User: Fold this.
Amino acid sequence: MQTKVTDPVSSSQSSTIQWQRFSVPYQYPVGFVRGAFDPDNPIFCQMVVRDEPEKRHRCLFVVDEGLASPDLDAKIDAYFAAHSDQLVMIDRPMVVPGGETVKNDLAHVERIQSAIHTHAVDRHSYVIAIGGGAVLDAVGLAAATCHRGVRHIRVPTTVLSQNDSGVGVKNAVNFKGIKNYVGTFAPPWAVLNDFDFLDQLPIRERIAGISEAVKVALIRDPAFYLWLERNADALATFRPEAEEYMVRRSAELHMHQIAHGGDPFEMGSARPLDFGHWSAHKLEAMTRHHVRHGEAVAIGIALDTRYSVLAGLLPEGDEERVIVLLESLGLRIWHPALESRDADGRLSILTGLEEFQEHLGGALTITLLTGLGQGHEVHEIDGKLVHQAMDWLKARSRSE
Assistant:
């Protein structure tokens, strides 16, 4: 008598798809203070120890070379001495180049990774970056890729990083001339915006960062845009109450988009917070970053606002209001590099559209304006209208 053996995996079963579904909640504090490393200010310590107040927490600092100084070292030393029952500084702060320099060479990321390895920074220790957005990007990438992610605390020190990039979930460095090509999405453990650092900024950097506030106001908050118009003089002269509100409100709008926009890790084809950025990223590269990010964003805002008018989306005259605001803040709306052409005679800036689309894949999605405070996504850009918008900006800048 033969015994029939049944294969437990039939041909139909072998084609079955089982879906794995789970969600991971993310939350992190974003603080706004003055004197973050004043020994009497508990907020930094509270951010570090919030889940485990009974233990001593190991911290490795990475500092933007533009900020590195004996004075900052002394402040950090005094802070850790005052909170020595809960905080341990692993080593002297590591210093890295600031600006695009730190993002243009992967060797800087590898050096940070080596320090994390050498000092045995584990997944319950902290890597703390103090610096501008570029340094936060590079340190964040290193932290996200060691042990598949160690705890990272950002201390943004520029207007641009405090009101925009520093409060977000992205980090990246450049590769082969392509902006932010190598990176990850990795929410920080905490963000601490210390307004005192803004007082140390060169005027050019301090002004450039305001462009991101103009951007987010134009696409998300009409009332904030009107506030920027009313307070342009106060912002251009760095009055503390105006500057601090601008940073806070801009950061709030960015945080709201990340939390409630439905796509915090950009799985789709849109980057809704990147109004004005498709040309800005390209302009930065074309000028070898002599045009700073915030400056390029201001030019990109001007270009896309005028384009919105030419495309019939934005009422005529609204672009003039935006230009007046940008110029009142001390931001330029034109750079000669915009007229550069490739070997085929095509405007080089237009390749920024292709790179912008390639970064996300899918359909081209660009945010334009239907009102001052109302963003609108489109999936096509007319090169002829881009030409016309550029001609208008060039003529407008010459008339000043």
About this structure: The radius of gyration is 24 Å. The domain at 30-200 is CATH 3.40.50.1970 (Rossmann fold). The mean pLDDT is 93. DSSP finds 15 helices and eleven strands in the chain.
